[in-house]
Write a structure and sequence with these properties.
6-stranded mixed beta sheet; alpha+beta; about 25% strand
């Protein structure tokens, strides 16, 4: 092996170059640390590691990415239209969706007031007819003895309420409209004749043109075929050509 001699000058140059390289690396690391400290940082989800938003960057908008975005947007639009169509055409779903969205359906029962007025207007134009508007009521948990005291009359197990009290009870949740079928019976006190009307369910209007008397008429309600519906009301409906409103608490 051949030995080579190294002069002090050569050694100095080599160590000098090494020192320059180390100094350059140190300056570069300090510059990177200052640059990283100036960048906003956030936590990468799932790693707990701090990363720079600038390092994450924004992916380039390639044709495939642009096409995928259009497909996702179109699918969302179609799903929204389908849900809207179902809400319009499926009974009851609209109110359920309103509840989920935080809005409640109309509970003012103003429609009953409009039906009452319409029944009266039409009855006046037909003075030869006897007309009743039946509003069957069911009690809720809010119903109690204080409300029972507001009744106008009682016919058997059926309680009759005035229109103002009944509408107030509906608005405040004491009553709800009953879907239970009921049969109205009337008795003409002027000649002691009785009349059985057709069975109805919910808010219903009854009209008869073959009754030639103005009464007065006592009423009672039958809630089932085996219900004898004992007892007539102590209040009466008098006259044809008008609409007699009957707000009756008929139970469940």
């Amino acid at each position: 092996m051949k030995a080579t001699s190294r002069s002090p000058a050569n050694l100095h140059l080599r160590f000098g170059a090494l020192n320059l390289n180390m100094a350059g690396e140190g300056l570069q690391k300090r510059a990177l640390r200052r640059k990283a400290a100036a960048r906003p940082a956030t936590v990468a989800v799932g790693t707990g590691r701090l990363i720079s938003l600038l390092e994450m960057g924004t992916p380039p908008m390639t044709p495939s990415l642009r096409r995928n975005r259009r497909l996702v947007w179109g699918a969302g639009l179609v799903a929204g239209l389908v849900l809207l169509g179902v809400a319009v055409f499926v009974p009851g779903l609209r109110s359920k969706l309103a509840g989920l969205s935080g809005s409640a359906p109309d509970s003012s029962y103003e429609w009953i007031s409009r039906v009452m007025a319409q029944c009266e207007e039409e009855a006046v134009t037909r003075p030869e007819t006897l007309n009743f508007l039946i509003v069957p009521l069911s009690p809720t948990r809010r119903y109690g003895p204080l409300w029972a005291e507001k009744k106008l009359a009682q016919a058997g197990t059926t309680l009759l309420f005035g229109s103002q009290d009944a509408l107030e009870g509906l608005r405040t949740g004491v009553f709800r409209i009953s879907s239970r079928p009921v049969v109205l019976h009337t008795r003409d006190t002027s000649n002691d004749t009785t009349h059985r009307w057709n069975s109805v369910s919910g808010v219903s209007r009854l009209t008869a043109g073959d009754i030639r008397s103005d009464g007065p008429f006592e009423i009672r309600f039958q809630t089932s075929p085996d219900d004898p519906a004992p007892g007539w009301s102590t209040i009466t409906a008098e006259g044809r050509g008008t609409c007699h409103w009957a707000f009756a608490l008929v139970g469940e």
